[in-house]
Design goal:
Rossmann fold; binds zinc ion; flat; alpha/beta; seven-stranded mixed sheet; Beta-Lactamase; single chain
């Protein structure tokens, strides 16, 4: 009998990506690619990166030990184990990845960081490779950042319609400050991008002030002003130049020095201009407190001019194709604070039973085909649960006197601020996520 061919490896099941080494000289870049292609691991690398992107992974973790190359993908905020590569294949793949990322492929011990442009069909990605020798071998983290933010509207990122309409109004008002916040690594760049895109950019002039080393993803009708790096100018000079053009909105995606921020805030009083900025924070009230802590001299101006602050948590979105509805028992609704009769069904993910329990009525094996949409994960993608803080007089006053988060939160609530917990229940009631996922997301950050 003929021997069965081995099953294909994951990297063999997809069309490979194209690598674009970051060399300014095109001829050198071509020469590097030609040489890398001759290596045994080039096809593995191009296929594995493609497979990761198509699995919606944003990170790949590779652990090289004597036993082989263990591999994990980071998908929707969770690590997933993949079948390992044998050591020889893994080594060859890493050699190729290091070559195209412009780090020394022969060095398996030092900490190295490199990057390469990646193209899959028409989509562009930026791949960063970090490697470090460890006692058992080598550990490699590959990050994949999409060139385009894959969301268009505030609704796409999870904000409910009514809040989105209110927030848009704040984005379009004049002579105030809007602050956007998110916990570290929880989608701040995406929310920033989608929020600015939702503002009226056609009739107003938006100027964004960005560190040349960390440029923001492009937004149509937003004019970036770079400082630092090779520009030879400071944030202060960059804003001062822009003021001459009398823009309507000053965007600060990053913390700048006190003088620069003060100059921009003065444009609010002097010329009814607007400032939009962002900070990393666990919630809207905390974010507002952090903004004041970053610019203590501007405390009074911030307290007076802040219009609204967003806060957010990311949760996995239930797969629309396989989520299962259930009638919530009255006791559960009461616990969640949902009035009886308001919500007919809540939803939970469909998780297939263990393979030995996948049998028909006669006990014969009847394996369940995993959902084509989510590959049996029960979730697909992530959305934000948003809170929108609109400070009243008491909170503005307290902001100039205290840095006590508990007290500020209490005042915000007394002024009608709902907070993230209430919004989280609404997200479950809308069928977008499950109670289990809420528990997981909130336990993680409590
Ligand atoms: Zn599904």
């Amino acid at each position: 009998m003929a021997e069965q061919p081995p099953p294909p490896q994951l990297w063999q099941t997809v069309a490979p990506v194209e690598f674009g080494p970051k060399l300014t000289d095109k001829t050198q870049s071509q020469a590097l690619l030609i040489s890398a292609r001759q290596g045994a691991g080039f096809e593995v690398a191009a296929g594995q990166v493609s497979h990761a992107i198509q699995s919606r992974a944003t990170q790949i973790l590779l652990d090289f030990t004597a036993a082989g190359c263990a591999m994990r993908y980071f998908i929707d905020g969770q690590w997933e184990q993949l079948p390992p590569l044998d050591r020889e294949t893994g080594d060859a793949m890493l050699f190729a990845l290091k070559q195209v990322s412009l780090v020394n492929p022969a060095d398996r011990r030092s900490a190295q960081v490199g990057s390469v442009a990646v193209k899959l069909k028409k989509e562009k990605y930026d791949l960063t490779l970090q490697s470090q020798g460890v006692p058992t071998g080598e550990r490699v983290l590959v990050r994949l950042v999409a060139g385009q933010i894959p969301f268009d509207t505030l609704g796409d990122i999870g904000m409910r319609d009514k809040m989105a309409a209110t927030f848009k109004q704040f984005l379009n008002d004049e002579a105030d400050i809007v602050l956007i916040t998110a916990p570290k690594g929880e989608g701040l760049t995406t929310t920033w991008n989608v929020s600015i895109s939702a503002a009226d950019r056609l009739v107003r002039d938006f100027q964004s002030f960005e560190d040349e080393a960390r440029p923001e993803p492009e937004i149509i009708n937003i004019n970036p002003n770079y400082y630092g790096g090779n520009t030879g100018i400071t944030p202060f000079e960059s804003v001062r130049k822009a003021i001459l053009k009398e823009p309507d909105v000053y965007l600060f995606p990053e913390h700048v020095d006190a003088e620069t921020f003060e100059m921009a805030l003065k444009q609010i009083d002097k010329a009814e201009k607007k400032v939009i900025t962002r900070v990393v924070a666990g919630g809207a009230v905390e974010g507002l407190m952090r903004l004041v802590a970053q610019y203590p001299e501007q405390r009074d101006a911030i307290a007076k001019r802040i219009a609204c602050v967003t806060g957010q948590r990311l949760v996995r979105r239930l797969c629309d194709n396989c989520k299962i509805g259930f009638q919530p028992p009255p006791q559960l609704l009461q616990q969640l604070g949902i009035p009886q009769g308001r919500v007919a069904l809540l939803y939970q993910p469909f998780i297939p039973p263990p393979i030995e329990q996948q049998v028909d009525e006669n006990g014969r094996p009847a394996p369940i085909t995993p959902c084509y949409n989510c590959q049996g994960r029960g979730y697909l993608g992530r959305i934000g649960i948003f809170e929108l803080l609109t400070p009243g007089e008491q909170l503005r006053d307290a902001l100039t006197k205290t840095q006590d988060l508990g007290r500020l939160m209490g005042i915000a609530k007394s002024e009608g601020f709902h907070g993230i917990q209430t919004e989280a229940v609404l997200t479950v009631a809308r069928g977008l996520t499950s109670l289990d996922e809420l528990k997981r997301a909130f336990a993680r950050q409590a």
